[in-house]
Amino acid sequence: MKKLGKQTIKFDNPPCITEVASIVGPKEANGPLAKYFDQCLEDEFWGEKTWEKSESKIIKETVNMVIAKSGIPVSDIEYCFAGDLLNQCISSSFGLRELNMPFLGIFGACSTFVEGLSLGAIMIEACSQNVLCAASSHFCSAEKQFRFPLELGNQRPQTSQWTVTGAGSAVLSKNGSGPYITHITSGKIVDMGIKDANNMGAAMAPAALDTLICHFKDTGRSPNYYDAIITGDLGHVGKEILIELAQSQGYNIKSNYNDCGVLIFDREKQDTHSGGSGCGCCATVFSGYFFKQLKDKKIKRLLLIATGALTNSTSTQQGESIPGIAHAVSIEI
Amino acid sequence: MDWLQNIDWFSILKCFVTGGLICVIGQILIDKTKLTPARILVIFVTTGVILGALGIYQYIVDFAGAGATVPLTGFGYNLAKGAIKAVKEVGILGAFTGGVTAAAGGIAAAIFFGYIASLISKPKMKKE
Questions:
Q1: What angle do CA A281, A229, A332 make, to 5 degrees?
Q2: Could you tell me where in chain A the CATH 3.40.47.40 domains are found?
């Protein structure tokens, strides 16, 4: 692999995304992308006693599913990169404790899935044959941790987003028929001083812009090189901000840009306000929808930029601003 | 059907409109400011205490009855009223004991019924 510019890595032998799997909750199952997911749950508990246990089960079953679909024996998968939103990433570490493979827990807030793909790709290029990446989130456990107890039944402001219940996972391999991860651009922490925990899209859009521009500068590519430029969970509010910010910097992304948080829910019918968010948003929409588009060659060049709000409940209560981050992977077939 | 004729419809209307207006203030604060629900809750109770201590809230209670005492501001009013009453009876110590004593019924009922609700129901995902 080779470093391009300041933040981008170009792979000599681009790692292949061999297989993906996704499981989503009931709200996502009523959304426009429902038919693309591998499994849709009927209730948010999935037979468990708590939401946290339910989220662990979702990531566990998603990982089992991707391993089964890939046909690669578990013993041949060498590393697992996984993360989620709950304190100390308990969904993934509890859910994957029986996986019996070297586990590298990661936290990049909602950018975790792409952070996992980036690290997994480096691991493949460095020394591995097969690597597993996964990320999850759950509406109820996230509301409880980051906002208010659901029992309070408080109203959600129009700028707020809906945490996706679901998990996505991918198996990366040294050899395969594609799609391939050709470049990764790892983002910097960008904090524009936004403090509203109900407006994550606005907090993360500048970080997405930073990574987007950096990717174009490092690779020498322009927006129209890609069939699709997709951000993780900026939502309706953040999407508009990013289009404007990019325009002001001389990049027109209007025609080929969209956001997973915008795509996963029907804004009018589902009343999700500014759209979806969470680690599971980018993970499920990529694993469910975009991977199939790539496989069918309907999209040949995809720039996936997962955005994360690096905040926690204590920092919000103490009035801290929300640092944003965005990681990009260029996936081509 | 005698009881129907004895209902004071006008006082019910006053009660409904006053209680509704207090809720409208809350809704405006939710929609137009960045205040969290928890902060709005505290603002309402504190406002009730201040208006109660100044004697202003008593006029609203006299006018609207339960329309003024049931919303959160009524809880604050109750705290203030209890504290003032206890100071008159037992001296300065009453400032610390009176408020909670007056509100004891409400607090104990909230905990009791909250506990019962937690035993017989399960939290669910929001619909919107």
A1: 100
A2: 2-173, 180-332
Side-chain half-sphere exposure of A155, counting CA atoms within 13 A: 12
DSSP A110: B
| Contact yes or no for A150 and B124 at CB 8 A | yes
Q: What's the CA gap between A142 and A160, in Å, rounded?
A: 13
Q: What is the pLDDT of residues B40-54, one digit of tens each?
A: 999 999 999 999 999
For chain B, domain boundaries: 2-120
Which value does ipTM take for this structure? 0.77
CB contact under 8 A, B30 and A155: yes
Domain covering A180-332 in this structure, CATH number: 3.40.47.40
- A150 contacts B126? CB cut-off 8 A: yes
The model's pTM is: 0.90
Q: Which residues of A touch B34 (CB under 8 A)?
A: 196, 198
Q: Under an 8 Å CB criterion, which residues of B touch A?
A: 30-31, 34, 36-38, 123-126, 128
| Integer Cα distance of B13 and B65 in angstroms | 11
* pLDDT per residue as tens digits for the range A9-56: 999 999 999 999 999 999 999 999 999 999 999 999 999 999 999 999
Query: Looking at beta carbons, which residues of chain A come within 8 Å of B72?
Result: none
| pLDDT mean over A201-216 | 96
Report DSSP letters for A246-292, one per residue: HHHTT---TTTEEEHHHHSS-HHHH--TT-EESHHHHHHHIIIIIHH
Question: Can you read off the two tokens belonging to residue B80?
Answer: 């203030």
Which residues lie across from A3 on neighbouring strands?
A9
Fold of A2-173: Peroxisomal Thiolase; Chain A, domain 1 (3.40.47)
Q: How far is CA A224 from CA A107, B93, B124, in A?
A: 31, 75, 44
